[in-house]
Design a protein that fits this description.
This protein has 183 residues and is α+β, with helices and mostly antiparallel strands. It has a single domain, classed as Heat Shock Protein 90 (2-Layer Sandwich). Strands 1-2-3-5-4 form a five-stranded antiparallel sheet, with helices on one face. It is globular. The protein starts with 5 loop residues before the first helix and ends in an 8-residue tail after the last strand. The structure holds adenosine-5'-diphosphate and magnesium ion.
Length: 183
């Protein structure tokens, strides 16, 4: 990992500045915000298919499959884990999901916002030491906690931000240029 190098830091800062902004078509950017409910029965499929449509004509190949998988995991987590904050919950009320896509020539950002202020449990480092990886791997892996680990592996970065007034957004970024893992 080149994390200590000045070029790496400069690259991360440049990506951060673009994540913060809204991409403009005049700068070859593309933006989409999609709102739906976790209870709609097809939340993950809608999000996956929207990734393909949103990226079509511009981004092709492996990164599209990885982005589909990542958004599916993040939306699946809202469906499976989100308990809306007390201020937002009412009996029988559907849980709202806001998905944001921001595309720049160099990055694709995905944000999945929910109504629960509880942070996601993002894995820190490797879950298994290398000497344990082998024929027993399946038995040693926990049944839950794989989705965000997979997302961390396929995306260039995964993080979350609290929302004003409650809830949070889980973000991930795909680097479209200079990603050594895809060359
Ligand atoms: N959007 C979310 N809101 C609240 N908690 C979350 C959210 N996403 C993930 N989590 C928490 O992080 C944990 C790890 O998520 P993940 O790696 O996807 O595993 P899994 O979904 O299989 O439990 C979850 O078990 C849950 O406790
Ligand atoms: Mg999950």
């Amino acid at each position: 990992m080149d994390a200590g190098k000045p070029e790496y830091v400069a690259g991360e800062l440049e990506a951060y500045a673009h994540w913060f902004a809204v991409p403009e078509p005049s700068a070859n950017g593309r933006f989409l915000a999609l709102t739906f409910f976790a209870e709609c029965g097809e939340a993950a499929r809608i999000a996956r298919d929207t990734v393909s449509v949103f990226l079509s004509d511009i981004v092709t190949g492996e990164v599209v499959y990885d982005a589909r998988l990542a958004v599916s995991e993040l939306v699946g987590n809202v469906v499976n884990h989100v308990v809306p904050d007390r201020s937002r919950s009412r009996d029988g009320r559907s849980r709202r999901i806001d998905v944001t896509f921001k595309l720049y020539p160099k990055w694709f950002f995905v944000g999945v916002k929910d109504e629960d202020s509880t942070p996601p449990l993002l894995p820190m480092g490797d879950a298994l030491s290398p000497e344990l990886v082998g024929e027993f791997t399946d038995a040693l892996l926990p049944d839950s906690g794989r989705g965000l680990m997979i997302t961390q592996r396929i995306a260039s970065a995964v993080w979350w931000t609290p929302e004003e007034g409650g809830g949070k957004t889980v973000w991930c970024r795909f680097d479209l240029v200079g990603d050594k893992r895809r060359q």
